[in-house]
Amino acid sequence: MTLATPPSAMAQKALDFISSLQETICKSFLTFESKEAFFNDVWERPHNMGGGISCIFEDGKLFEKAGVNISAISGSFGSEKEKAMFLSLLKQLQSPAINLDQAQYFATGISLVCHPINPFIPTTHMNYRYFEIQSSESTLWWFGGGCDLTPYYLDLKLITHFHQCLKAACDLIDPHYYPMYKKACDTYFYLPHRHEHRGVGGIFFDYLNKQSQDHYFHLISACGNTFLESYLPFIDTYKDKDYDEDDTLWQRYRRGRYVEFNLLHDRGTKFGLQTNGRIESIFMSLPKHVLWTYNEALLTHSHQELLNVISSPRDWV
Amino acid sequence: MTLATPPSAMAQKALDFISSLQETICKSFLTFESKEAFFNDVWERPHNMGGGISCIFEDGKLFEKAGVNISAISGSFGSEKEKAMFLSLLKQLQSPAINLDQAQYFATGISLVCHPINPFIPTTHMNYRYFEIQSSESTLWWFGGGCDLTPYYLDLKLITHFHQCLKAACDLIDPHYYPMYKKACDTYFYLPHRHEHRGVGGIFFDYLNKQSQDHYFHLISACGNTFLESYLPFIDTYKDKDYDEDDTLWQRYRRGRYVEFNLLHDRGTKFGLQTNGRIESIFMSLPKHVLWTYNEALLTHSHQELLNVISSPRDWV
Questions:
Q1: Which pLDDT score is estimated for B81?
Q2: Which of A117, A200, B85, B137 has the fewest CB atoms inside 10 Å of its own CB, making it the most exposed?
Q3: CATH class of residue range B9-311
Q4: What is the mean pLDDT of chain A?
Q5: Min distance B265 CA to chain A CA atoms (Å)
Q6: Domain segments of chain A: what residues?
Q7: Residue A95 pLDDT more than 80?
Q8: β-bridge partners, A42
Q9: How confident is the model over A22-38, as a mean pLDDT?
């Protein structure tokens, strides 16, 4: 069996939601995208430790490269190094110590990254996940995730709409959440060596477990369910918009920042590489075509508005 | 003044060699390359702390992106963080402890990376550097550097020639050096997540200070001086060779590995970013056009010979 069997009612609920969200998003994308660009990649980990279903779009009408991937994995903690790494992660939870020697983990998540061909459509990233560790004495669990936008050109109205959707979803659960998670997103997606944020932000959270499981399940399902509403207007508005070689150069140059962030800073990438994760899934987030140029000023001089926006985050709603 | 003033006879000798090597290499490249693709970028650090001269080639007849850069910088150790970082580096020297509070450093080096347009010409990297720290009690110094090759297609004869040149240069100083530095190069330029070496190696050394300054100056000058002899045959042989879109796709895909290595593993990149170094110089090494694809097997299936060579280093001479 590809996906790991959920060990609890919440694990099952999270996996069901994640599977259904993947299906909904892919169906929607396939109304714009050619079927030839779609690739359904089912993969399994050895020793019955689960796997994933990657829905990949590459070189299509709409997407240069995109992935809408889910996974459900399980197992025990192998090496001492792996245990030490997880124990250091678990410190974020402020939970009582847990002995990982006999413990079993289960993790399920949806991870989406879309790099459209048209430079007027932003890159977007979305990820929601549920993690559970069962030892003989106790069960630990937490939720994490987020969604953010990396435009090449600014459409202030649609960026505001994107943030409004996320705010409305968060507000359903707690009106304090959107401002907190928006700020966390701006803080996390930051490239110190460029003095730039990765894009115009969104929301970002991790290690959520202070409230009930249902509370946070409600949060990730509301946020996940608003994804299409938040992002499709960019596709609708710009999929047929003309662009020229300079627009594509600018897009590929900015995509370099995406690579810099993911390889230099992204926790998920680091974690994946350290735990010997599946390379295709870890690097799914990287854009297809990227360029680095020495004399950046030649490209950036006509894009000051975007550069101003990503140099200091603003309040969009 | 752009370049820092050398504080010692050896510092002056190293800088003279490095300047002259830059001139020789650029003159040679300009016999193949169009002058329009050449860009001489002189930069300075604030507060009279030196600077550099970057000779950049971009979008030329021969080079997609190349840099032949020198720098000579000096200063004192600023923050406690910076001091701690340097003290941890200095451990590699097995020298007596030094108090960095009142110390002055001087560093000069040449750094070359060439990414040719023609996929049949390998990417190459070369770097030789001299570092000196003077405190009131003592002077520390060391040499470092190396040169290596990253081909997209294999020309076994020319790769062997490249290694033979480096061996001949090392042998002038000590016949033990080439095997040691060749092995260090294979070890250093390794991508664990890909189970691949970056290319077909070369030589790599750092923190050399056990013998005399002249001994190591002789080593880096012999190695630096053999660069053109080792690499030009690739240009001569392949600069006019036909290639098609598939060759370029393969080249850009392999260039992704170069980016992965430099952003995930390269010590120079890490050091540069941590010390708030000059971004243009740090990222000069990145290729211009790069691609990542999800289904790598579609590209790799016809390139098994290269993949075998980079998966386990061989003895070239």
A1: 82
A2: B137
A3: alpha beta
A4: 95
A5: 9
A6: 9-311
A7: no
A8: A53
A9: 97
> Which chain A residues contact residue B39 at CB under 8 A?
294-295
Q: Apex CA B266: angle with CA B264 and CA B267, to 5°?
A: 120
Cα dist from A120 to A197, B63, B172, whole Å: 19, 30, 58
Over residues B6-24, the pLDDT tens digits come to 999 999 999 999 999 999 9
Distance CA B33, CA B14 (A): 28
A196, two tokens: 């730039």
Nearest to B132 by CA among B122, B124, B141, B123: B141
d(CA B283, CA A264): 13
ipTM reported for the complex, 2 dp: 0.94
Confidence at B275, pLDDT banded by 50, 70, 90:
confident
Identify the closest residue of chain A to B260 by CA–CA distance: A263
Q: Chain B residues within 8 A (CB-CB) of chain A?
A: 39, 41, 54, 56, 58, 65, 67, 192-194, 252, 256, 259-260, 263-264, 273, 276, 279-280, 282-284, 286-296
Question: How many angstroms separate the most distant Cα atoms in chain A?
Answer: 61
SS3 state of residue B300? helix
* Rounded Cα distance, A74 and A105, in Å: 5
The reply to whether B125 belongs to the active site is yes
- For residue A113, the tally of other CB atoms under 10 A from its CB is 21
Is residue B246 helix, strand or coil? helix
**Quick check: A68 and A22 in contact, CB under 8 A?**
yes
